[in-house]
Amino acid sequence: MTTNEKSAAELVEMSSPLGSEDALRAEQSDDGTFPSVLVLGATGYIGGRLVPRLLAGKYRVRTLTRSRARIDGLPWADAVDVIEGDAQDPDAMDRAMRGVDLVYFLVHSMTSGRDYAALDRAIALNVARSANAHGVGRIIYLGGLHPEGVELSAHLASRKEVGDILLASAVPTIVLQAGVVIGSGSASFEMIRHLTEVLPYMPAPKWVRNFIQPIAVRDVLYYLLAAARAEPGVNRAFDIGGPDVFRYSKMMNGYAVEAGLPQRHIAALPVLTPGLASHWVGLVTPVPRQIARPLVESLLHSCVVKDDAIDLLIPPPPGGLTKYRAAIRLALGRVDLDQVETSWVDARVTDAPSDPMPSDPEWAGRTVFEDARTRSTSAEPAAVWTVISQIGGATGWYSASVLWALRGWVDRLAGGVGQQRGRRTNSSLTVGDAIDVWRVERVEPGRLLRLRAEMRVPGNAWLELAVRPTDDGSEYSQRAVFFPRGLTGRLYWLSMLPFHGLIFSGMVNRIVAVAEGHEMSETT
User: Fold this and answer.
1) What pLDDT score was predicted for residue 354?
2) How far apart are CA 337 and CA 221, in angstroms?
3) Residues 369 and 284 reside in one and the same domain
């Protein structure tokens, strides 16, 4: 292990999972049972980190999800009770609420389109109704830090509205209001990271002069866990933030120091509106416009903690709150070791297809375009699968990298996620993971990887990579499947055929060659 890897490992150890500490562990009832907790948003950035910590604290955890397969791919899937259904559906929510002592509301529909506020409002009303009907003891909601007496952005106004709905319910509710969350994989961290690394001179909106109070993700998790053991009957909102308050521009230069970069020159320009700034952030960073705009709008006003009321309910974490630069070091340590626990990249994007690829017999009578290729190889199936499972992100797509990059830029310009999104980790694949412009729809380890396109195309597209054993080694197979939408979809496929010949044939040849090269290096 190199010196840098040792340093990163030490930082990761500092951010070891919470939940099992005495002050955060579930309190056992007189009959020997532990509290039952419903986590709404368990596959999100915060929820995906909270669930394993609740389990470590002996809580009995239940989740409500639209796709059980998304939970099944997570390491803690077998330890939770999974209810499949939509959070807007009263019947599904009632099934999830039955027998629950505590609810964590971590749902935020920021990527679901322009009506995300209406969707979050409907979910909040459904949660309040069902929690009251089933005698839930407490709701804990993670909202957004915001100033008083000003017109809030649509994003912050929605977060506040959800908190108000829950506080007005008959169920005691603790609303924790956090600002910029710093942690590996968070959208805010990735915005800061890429803006600072890419641009030595940075024209920026005038909001870079506003004061903010970031908070480390580990401290957010601490407050969420500790709120479960707060005194009964508490029903109010609390601001939470880290120990540092400074301008957004200083925050970017604080990242530069920790990343070993020169200080960045930042010029605040009044002509950069939130809309223009979100386009600019979308082009410079991997964060797409659908996520960037609400985040940018949230920075239009100074957002700092208004009082220390939270300290009267929950004492600060042992050792104190994490300073900003320490939080950056922790995040970079996770990235260096490829141990990003959850990431914004796995957030769903607007108008992406959600239906799985139909099975081949169901294609009868439908217009379907397919590009299928196979190649026999002396490499063993395990070697081929290793190459398949590392596709995308930093590894790339094994062919025509310029064409893949160009397609990603076209998608970003059209408002899509683009090729820069990458993947959360290079060492594992689970259903629901994002890989550049694709999302993992199905994984059969050692045999099959199916990806569903989330780029903007006039139809639905999938890419399937598979390997099977043969007497002489294995056979690699690859197929692209496209269900066109109208005449535009048909013309799109025809226009892409010349590029497919370069991209897909190159992928087949390169994947097999890399697999054979891996085997050869292992035997020498």
Assistant:
1) 59
2) 21
3) no
Q: How far is CA 488 from the centre of its chain?
A: 32
**Quick one: how far is CA 160 from the chain centroid?**
22
Please tell me the total count of domains within the chain.
2
Of 94, 18, 97, the C-alpha closest to 56 is 18
State residue 350's pLDDT score: 47
312 and 398: one domain?
no
Give CA 198 to chain center in angstroms.
Answer: 22
pLDDT in tens, 149-161: 888 888 889 999 9
**Domain encompassing residue 427:** 362-523
Residue 443 shares a structural domain with residue 507: yes
**Segment 74-102 mean pLDDT:** 95
How does DSSP classify residue 200?
Answer: S
Residue 288 has a pLDDT of 73
- In-domain check, residue 42: yes
Answer yes or no: do 339 and 371 share one domain: no
Spell 318-333 as b/e; 16+ CB within 10 A means b: eeebbebebbbbbbbb
End-to-end CA distance of the chain: 23
The answer as to whether 259 is a domain residue is: yes
What pLDDT, on a 0 to 100 scale, did the predictor assign at position 3?
Answer: 45
> Residue 47: pLDDT above 60?
yes
